[in-house]
TrEMBL record:
<dbReference type="GO" id="GO:0005634">
    <property type="term" value="C:nucleus"/>
</dbReference>
<dbReference type="GO" id="GO:0003676">
    <property type="term" value="F:nucleic acid binding"/>
</dbReference>
<feature type="region of interest" description="Disordered">
    <location>
        <begin position="1"/>
        <end position="20"/>
    </location>
</feature>
<dbReference type="InterPro" id="IPR022755">
    <property type="entry name" value="Znf_C2H2_jaz"/>
</dbReference>
<keyword id="KW-0690">Ribosome biogenesis</keyword>
<dbReference type="GO" id="GO:0042254">
    <property type="term" value="P:ribosome biogenesis"/>
</dbReference>
<dbReference type="InterPro" id="IPR003604">
    <property type="entry name" value="Matrin/U1-like-C_Znf_C2H2"/>
</dbReference>
<dbReference type="GO" id="GO:0043021">
    <property type="term" value="F:ribonucleoprotein complex binding"/>
</dbReference>
<dbReference type="InterPro" id="IPR051879">
    <property type="entry name" value="C2H2-ZF_Maturation_Protein"/>
</dbReference>
<comment type="similarity">
    <text>Belongs to the ZNF593/BUD20 C2H2-type zinc-finger protein family.</text>
</comment>
<keyword id="KW-0963">Cytoplasm</keyword>
<dbReference type="GO" id="GO:0008270">
    <property type="term" value="F:zinc ion binding"/>
</dbReference>
<feature type="compositionally biased region" description="Basic and acidic residues">
    <location>
        <begin position="90"/>
        <end position="106"/>
    </location>
</feature>
<dbReference type="Pfam" id="PF12171">
    <property type="entry name" value="zf-C2H2_jaz"/>
</dbReference>
<dbReference type="InterPro" id="IPR013087">
    <property type="entry name" value="Znf_C2H2_type"/>
</dbReference>
<keyword id="KW-0539">Nucleus</keyword>
<keyword id="KW-0863">Zinc-finger</keyword>
């Protein structure tokens, strides 16, 4: 009739599972995006070559959010969203340097 049931999943102890989740949802940090917003770098991100592995062939990219979009309609909709406007404010702030961080820690 009933058999012995084995617990499935048990991912609490699985280190590889946690590493996979970290890299899967990795987004560029605000200080990296701050460098991308500079005028000499922004052209590089907006005029990318066609890449079949990226959404929308890599042609629709939001620099301040570091996200690719499928088509022009979806990126325009994103640009008027609250999430995009908040991210733009965060990225425009000057990031802290290592010296400032060390002084704050003392």
């Amino acid at each position: 009739m009933g058999g012995i049931y084995k617990r499935k999943g048990n991912s609490a102890k699985n280190k590889q599972h946690h590493r996979m989740l970290k890299t899967k949802s990795y987004k560029r940090a605000n200080d990296q995006i701050h460098d991308d917003i500079k005028p000499q770098n922004i052209q590089r991100w907006q005029n990318q070559p066609i890449d079949e592995t990226l959404p929308g062939l890599g042609q629709y990219y939001c620099v301040s959010c570091a996200r690719y979009f499928v088509n022009e309609e979806s990126i325009k909709k994103h640009q008027i969203s609250k999430q995009h406007k908040k991210q733009e404010k965060r990225v425009k702030e000057k990031p802290y340097t290592h010296m400032e961080a060390e002084q704050a820690g003392k």
